[in-house]
Amino acid sequence: YETVKTDAQGNETTGTITFTAKGDNGAIAETTFKLKGNESLLIKDILADTKYKVEEASARAWDYNTTPDNEENVIVSDETAECEYTNERSVGTIDLTKIVSGTGKDIVGNFEFTIVLTYEDDIKLSDKVNMPTTEFKNATINAAQGNTVTIKAVLKNGETMTIENVLVDTTYVITEKNYFLNGFLECIIDGNSVEVTDKDVVLSVEDAISAMAEADEHTFENVRKSGNLLVTKTPDGNAFEDDREFTFTVTLTNEKHVP
Fold it and tell me: Quick count: other Cβ atoms within 10 Å of Cβ 92?
């Protein structure tokens, strides 16, 4: 059969395509071809009353949703049957921001995060086009394990890490390391306060990528509250020795057992 292929720019190329007979009497014939976005293929001079069925191979491995799944009809004399297939593939972005508030030297430190992305089972994560990306310098994207990808990152106060190219409908969990032993007894996650009562409290948020144009934004704010203690020796009496040193013992007790 003669064909006319039209590319995305509207340029036409003529050619031929061969159908392979199937069945005992050859009444069924089949061929395959490939098209890119906005391309089309016209197959000319198919006999009237011939039934046709067009099926697109699944592209779910790259997270493409195809509409419709197939087209089936009959060739009508002097008419051109048209089949239009729409493939939809969308990605989203995650913004993770670290905020530290309060007092003490630990508020300028490093804070460790683990982000676990869970993809739909049929996504081909061995193809890097499906993998997430980030330009944040203190982040490592590990190789996929099954349908999950784990990202490790270290953020400081005021930093934001952006994770891009995350396929829509991918679920994810962001977990921050617990810094109870550093005196951070509160963590505000996306505006929700979590009391950090011990070192085993899990600080995390779970979400899923949608087709919205805006990035998914998540903020972790660690709060460290502290005060100061001033001890002063006051001289008194007419025989006070200015050079005499007095010994003091300070005992700190914290019900939360923070060292």
Answer: 21
Element spanning 6, H or E: strand 2-6
Whether 133 and 211 have beta carbons less than 8 Å apart is answered as no
C-beta separation of 63 from 168 below 8 A: yes
- Among the listed residues 158, 167, 156, the one whose alpha carbon sits nearest the alpha carbon of residue 133: 167
Q: 242: which residues sit within 8 A by CB, 6+ positions away? A: 235
- Sheet containing strand 192-195, edge to edge, reads 160-167, 91-102, 216-224, 184-189, 192-195
Number of Cβ atoms within 10 Å of the Cβ of 25: 7
**88-91: long-range contacts, CB 8 A cutoff, minimum separation 24:** 88/64, 89/62, 89/63, 89/64, 89/65, 89/167, 90/167, 90/168, 90/211, 91/164, 91/165, 91/166, 91/167, 91/168, 91/209
d(CA 173, CA 147): 14
CA distance 203 to 192: 11
Q: What are φ and ψ of residue 61, in 5° steps?
A: -60, -20
Are 217 and 97 contacting, i.e. CB atoms less than 8 angstroms apart?
Answer: yes
Lookup: tokens for 210: 């949608």
Q: Which residues contact 214 (CB under 8 A, 6 or more apart)?
A: none
pLDDT along the chain (259 residues), means of 10: 96 96 81 96 96 91 84 93 91 96 78 97 93 97 96 97 95 96 91 93 94 86 89 90 91 72
130 secondary structure, DSSP code: G
φ, ψ for residue 212, nearest 5 deg = -65, 150
